[in-house]
Write a structure and sequence with these properties.
Layout: E1 14-19, E2 27-33, H1 40-50, E3 56-62, H2 68-77, E4 82-88, H3 94-104, E5 109-113, H4 124-132, E6 137-141, E7 148-151, H5 157-171, E8 183-187, H6 188-197, H7 205-215, E9 220-224, E10 226-228, H8 237-256
Parallel strand pairs: 2-3, 2-5, 3-4, 6-9, 7-10
Antiparallel strand pairs: 1-4, 5-8, 6-8
Helix pairs in contact: 1-2, 5-8
Bound molecules: guanosine-5'-diphosphate and magnesium ion.
Guanosine-5'-diphosphate binds near residues 36 and 91.
Amino acid sequence: MPPISCVRHSDDTRLVSARRVPAEPDLSIIIPAYNEGERLPSTLREVADYFHDPIEIVVVDDGSRDDTAALASRILLMTRHAYAVVRHPQNHGKGCAVRLGVLWARGGRLLCVDADGAAPIAEWEKLRARLDAGADLVIGSRAMPESRIPITQPWYRRPLGRAYNLLVRALLFGGIHDTQCGFKALRSEVARDLFSRQRIDGFSFDPEVIFLALRVGMRVEEVGIVWNDRPHSKVSVLNDSLEMLRDLLRIRRYARRGVYGCDIPRFSAAAG
Ligand SMILES: Nc1nc2c(ncn2[C@@H]2O[C@H](COP(=O)(O)OP(=O)(O)O)[C@@H](O)[C@H]2O)c(=O)[nH]1
Ligand SMILES: [Mg+2]
């Protein structure tokens, strides 16, 4: 077995604040947040105001050095929703943060969104319609004919995004146009299964989860959404690109070695 670098059920996880409600909420929204003191508050307010009936909101502070967790707690306390703010003292990466949020959440459906609120929360309705129609995993996408991107990513991010998508196609699977958009919905049983298998702590956790879902025959759908790119991205083009590429190769290796604990024929040891 290769070493597993990621923190799984995170011995170092701290619960910062929470409000539990007795019933299982219909929806849990998971927000990974790393140094998001500036961008997270307006996203939290938008989410909290949008839903009339109580939902659950899980903020995972991924070792921020600013006051992300305290701000999130203060805002969520003023809402009518169930919530949890959990925190790793160390930064582990977006994949690790989303995994922790998924394993923490108690809702029947899960929606993972970025802290910057790039996708208006009303776009959830498009994803929900697909879940209701039987999809297991619904990928919000900036690359479908019906996608609308009033504010695009900076010029240098777009070719990198396309190159990454080509690598995903070459190394893992085809048919998905935008694996990286931070707006995805899953049924909770599916999410728990996928995230208890996945291993990547960084940004390549997205193709890893989609890869696993496709390989075990889940119904994966991609739906175009509205997306307004926000400034102050937390992605470092230099550092993160290399790690993302290395992690794509790692996913293949894990699949070949049976680390995921499910049969993935194309990557079995015999197939090399
Ligand atoms: N860069 C980075 N983002 C993280 C990390 N952990 C959680 N995140 C969150 O992952 C999301 C990434 O979104 P963003 O920076 O807007 O990426 P972009 O929209 O692709 O430029 C944000 O919610 C971050 O706060 C981490 O270790 N590094
Ligand atoms: Mg963003």
